[in-house]
Amino acid sequence: MKEKAIVVSKKGNKAEVAVIRTSACDKCRACSGGVKGQPLKVWAENETKAEVGQIVEIEMESKALLSATFILYVIPLAGFILGVILGLKLADILNIMWKELFSFLIGFLFIILVFAGIYVNNRFFDKSRMFTARIVNVLDDQYQKR
Q: 141 phi and psi, to 5 degrees?
């Protein structure tokens, strides 16, 4: 997946870039959470030695994007469902009166545990470089609002 972005800052061999949103982004709003005007900023490997203010093309593998989506959405959902099922079984064993509330709370606890696991493994994800975007091309010298 390739996107246009503006280099906002540099740190070593990495650059922080603000992704230039297309008209398709206005309809989706998945990465902005529905907040208009907020640019999506990411760190990218600066292989082209792009400077602050330049318009660049960044690339991230589709496999990495799908993997990140799976990790952030599917695994927590599976954890919640597993927690609810285990909560219902545990409520029966412990003879708890409010089974649904108890199972919901156990499911919520499982979501928290899954996100804690993702947070703890964040260093591994950073080291794998699978989820790191790369600047592959400098498109223009300076960004000009039109």
A: -70, -45
Domain boundaries, the chain: 2-60+132-140, 63-126
| Burial class for 123, CB neighbours closer than 10 Å (0-12, 13-18, 19+) | exposed
pTM over 0.85: no
* HSE toward the beta carbon, residue 98, CA cutoff 13 A: 5
Distance CA 19, CA 57 (A): 9
The dihedral through the CA atoms of 135, 25, 131, 62 has a sign that is negative
**pLDDT exceeds 70 at position 22:** no
- Residue 125, both tokens: 């994800």
What would the CATH number be for the domain defined by 2-60+132-140?
2.40.50
Going by C-alpha positions, the residue among 75, 62, 63, 84 that lies closest to residue 118 is 75
The tokens for 47 are 């292989």
Per cent of the chain over pLDDT 70 is: 80
Which of 50, 65, 39, 60 shows the shortest CA–CA distance to 15?
50
